[in-house]
Amino acid sequence: MQLERATNRTLRRRNRSVLLAKVFLDGPLARQDLATSTGLSQAAVSNVVGDLIEDGLVTEAGTVESDGGRPRTMLQVAPRFALVVGVDVGETRVRVELFDLAMTPLATVDYPINPGQPDPETVVAHIFAGLSYVTGAAAVSTADILGVGIGVSGVVEQGRQAVVHAQTLGWEGVELERMLRAGTDLPLHLDNGAKTLGQAEMWFGAGRGARHAVFALIGSGVGAAVVTGGVTYRGASSSAGEWGHTTLCYDGRPCRCGARGCLEAYVGAGAIIDRYRDARRGRAVPGADEESQITTLLAQAGSSAAARRVLDETASYLGAGVANLINLFNPERVVLGGWAGVALGAHLLPAIRRAAAAHALRQPFAQASIELCRLGVDAVALGAATLPIARLLTAGGIREPSKIH
Amino acid sequence: MQLERATNRTLRRRNRSVLLAKVFLDGPLARQDLATSTGLSQAAVSNVVGDLIEDGLVTEAGTVESDGGRPRTMLQVAPRFALVVGVDVGETRVRVELFDLAMTPLATVDYPINPGQPDPETVVAHIFAGLSYVTGAAAVSTADILGVGIGVSGVVEQGRQAVVHAQTLGWEGVELERMLRAGTDLPLHLDNGAKTLGQAEMWFGAGRGARHAVFALIGSGVGAAVVTGGVTYRGASSSAGEWGHTTLCYDGRPCRCGARGCLEAYVGAGAIIDRYRDARRGRAVPGADEESQITTLLAQAGSSAAARRVLDETASYLGAGVANLINLFNPERVVLGGWAGVALGAHLLPAIRRAAAAHALRQPFAQASIELCRLGVDAVALGAATLPIARLLTAGGIREPSKIH
DNA sequence: ACGACTTAATTCACGCTATTATTAAAGCCC
DNA sequence: GGGCTTTAATAATAGCGTGAATTAAGTCGT
Asked: Chain A residue closest to B251 (CA)?
């Protein structure tokens, strides 16, 4: 039950938002398209679009020939109306990327961090360094930056100031937003990295067109982003979707979170490698890091029965975990992502589908397709960059929240 | 991203909806209260309330004395503006209940059904019989009935016409809505029984005030209703929340759904009784039906170590299951309900909380309280009856969708 | 009993917004 | 160039919420 009053300005802001979002997401469109697809009258569309053009948010982008009649002028979001920055705070590196509103990457920089429990201060310093690097490299002014989105691989607790709990980074209640705000006046949007990746796939990847989707991400950690009604599901404190630490096997293998039987203790990259090592009677899996060890495992599937068994089991566990998501969230689409998810999914997707079918209820399973992601792992920064844009769109392109005359 | 245009009438409808919902849910309120709590101007409130009174939706309900000043006149939803019917299609009976808009029960009737796979036709006949019985008993006209809400213990797939998949009833793709529409012109609202119960608890019970809550229901079956942002989470085809058939114990006990290791196979009433029988080395648990057998188990906890062990295990499994809900949905409240849930919860709640704490991530667990429901099991019909009301409230009290002059 | 004071509800001019109908613009085709 | 088609802008109209002023309905002190 919504309890927001509606005033006359609300109306305009909302229609601005509807039109702006449509132009942004569905590419160049004519005023007519907007009128028919939104149901607004042509007059209103013209009126609102006029405002948007005047505000510099939208530009006319050429005309399209017609078969007898005035050619329709196409509209698009002005790519340079503003710039956005996406930051990916992963377990092994901090990536800072600058985009324009057409989501063209203008500059990118990576800062590797040593995996052993990076200092929050170091990460913050990397972010600031990255900010000044990308603005310098693209020769743009900070004033043109609409906002900075930051995807962190851990629980991001939204409150007045976002706080990060990331067991994999060794962070417990790190006041990342406060630390960042101390060094910049740019609008900040912190969020869980899985959620930003889901956002990216939703707008530009495998989630397009779906209203209810779950993005299941397998990497060193295991997480999920749930989108419902086109909007990321957050829950009370924005930590919803912690799929990796749901119990799949009561009293089972110990997990690094301290509990037993978590999904991550079976299908997290580390867990898969551990299980393969066990299957090899304790002989270490060749490879410098988890990523190459997983590659080894997949490469040996042709020759080693043990590797095949480990992969089969992985698909079964993963399928059961996906079935849980399907039963609980009833999505129309489950998208498998994360670096390990992509590596495994390419080979195991049919087996995962079979296992999910065996564990999920028929009706919700029949509603859901299970697919691979389309954007790759680096989309965390892209998705983070969409956060300030999402805010701009819902606000109807009005940057200042309120003004006092 | 919402894509609904907003027109001038939308505004009024929305404000009608906001005010009407507030008056309905937060009891008698003065116009002033409405103005301050919604942010609308007093003039607008007066204006809209005037319309609502004229339409017969709202009535003035006396005045409240003041210490110097005009006394405020309180407003309430007119209890007899319309009547609603709630139907509970359970595994053992069909209940039909008639309410006014103050949710006062005006008439109730139960039709027992023999547990062995009841015929859909029989259930439909019971519903029609119940409808004519309650209208007769309360001496009201069918024309005064706003709508009929029907809570079914099974998956209700919403489409053009709701279809029911209820393994416990032996129903597979039963076109219940079509069958009902053939016999009545009343607006129908079919939904899963757990969801209607959650709705009832949300409006009148343990969920009041929460924006994100999960209602975990334990009976013969195990299910959950998820409320997010004050609204029931449905997913793509409205079957979200099938908690009972999530895998808790990979490759564990067989479940009646065909899979193995489902939560229901551990904490469903039948499963608990089975586990107790196993603990008694196969000796049947005394009791005529599941309900009395569970009572027996609880009664013997004082004397029998086996009973205690079974209950402890139940609390642990249940806690792990609740932890999964907390990790995935990040609610501020988890409400334990269902007849078995109530019976067990009274004794096991502390143990369940401990087990949930052990399995959930710290941060989301700290955000969530775990409580018992307040309304009892019979609230399914009450919750079903709220469905037509919820529609009325969101529509701002406008019954006909559109009129042609 | 009367006036001062307080609080609640209504009225009305105003500005904002979308709608429908109408007009202008811009091109194609014969 | 005139007729036709499609797109965009303009004008007249009506709905809606706001804010200030006004009316309504009491309490309290003297």
From this structure: A249
The answer to whether the Cβ–Cβ distance between B250 and A252 falls below 8 Å is yes
Apex CA B303: angle with CA B346 and CA B283, to 5°? 100
Q: Are B105 and B95 in contact (CB under 8 A)?
A: no
Given a contact cutoff of 8 angstroms between Cβ atoms, the answer to whether A245 and A263 are in contact is yes
What counts of helices (H) and strands (E) characterise chain B? 13, 16
Backbone angles phi, psi at B210, to 5 degrees: -80, 150
Average pLDDT over residues A296-306: 93
In angstroms, the first-to-last Cα distance of chain A is: 34
Bridge partner residues of B145 (DSSP): B83
DSSP track, A274-336: HHHHHHTTTPPPSSSSHHHHHHHHHHGGGT-HHHHHHHHHHHHHHHHHHHHHHHHH--SEEEE
**Strand-pair category, B163-166 with A369-372:** unpaired
Least-confidence region, from A319-333, B43-57, B319-333, B349-363 = B43-57
- Measured between alpha carbons, how far is A117 from A120 in angstroms, rounded to an integer? 9
Place of tokens 């590196």: A93
Contact predicate A74/A95, CB 8 Å: no
Q: Is the CB of residue A362 less than 8 Å away from at least one CB of chain B?
A: yes
- Tens of pLDDT along B193-244? 999 999 999 999 999 999 999 999 999 889 999 999 999 999 999 999 999 9
Q: CA–CA separation, B369 vs B371, rounded Å?
A: 6
Ranges of H-type helices in B280-338: 290-300, 305-329
Dist. CA A192–CA A384, nearest whole Å: 9
Tell me the Ramachandran region of residue A330: left when phi exceeds 0, alpha when psi lies from -120 to 50, beta otherwise: left
The string of DSSP codes covering A39-62 is ---HHHHHHHHHHHHHTTSEEEEE
- Tens of pLDDT, residue by residue over B379-395, are 999 999 999 999 999 99
Token pair in block for residue B6 = 């907003």
Stretch A274-303: mean pLDDT: 93
Token readout for B173 is 């793709």
What are the residues with a C-beta under 7 Å from any atom of nucleic chain C?
A: A 8-9, 11-12, 15, 39-44, 47-48, 63, 65-71; B 5-8, 30-32, 42-43, 46-47, 49-50, 66-73
CA dist B126 and A54 (Å) reads 64
Contact A380, A193 (CB under 8 A): yes
Tokens coding B95? 């209940």
- The Cα–Cα gap between A35 and A23 comes to 12
Q: Nearest residue to C7 (CA, C1')?
A: B69
Residue B397's pLDDT band (cuts 50, 70, 90): confident
**Rounded distance, CA B197 to CA B194, Å?**
5
Q: What is the band of B169 on the pLDDT scale with cuts at 50, 70, 90?
A: confident
Fill in the amino acid letter for B354: R
State the pTM of this model.
0.93
CB A111 within 8 A of CB A50: no
How many angstroms separate the CA atoms of A330 and A364, rounded?
Answer: 6
- Residue B189 pairs in a beta bridge with B149
Which two structure tokens, joined as six digits, stand for B288? Answer: 């005529």
